[in-house]
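Comment on both lines for my students:
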Amino acid sequence: MNFPSNLKYSKEHEWVLVDGNNATIGITDFAQKELGDIVYVDINTVGETVAKDAVFGTVEAVKTVSDLFMPISAKIVEFNGALNDAPESVNTDAYGAGWMVKVQISNAAELNELMDSEAYQKHIGL
């Protein structure tokens, strides 16, 4: 499994790539492996400000549907529309083509509550 050191991680298995006051968010390599083959990503919160730990969408795999939790308070400014035609990108490239949303960070202090790569690996038992 892959755990890029330039990302922050949530206990609910989302990753955050910070770029100034903006961030890109997706689910971790661990999460996509646990879910299995992803067939649909449903995010209809674009334009909304979503509180930390609130549900901002769902991801549907062959055998389950799982909520997506916002790791930081943020306004969702963009959904990765490529996932409509290729949701399997989350399985094949979780940290690249499989990103889910781009956001404007509402409270940068919340970033300090996220885990680094090493802490996340301990969190999942590696």
In short: Helices lie at 29-35, 82-85, 89-92, 117-123.
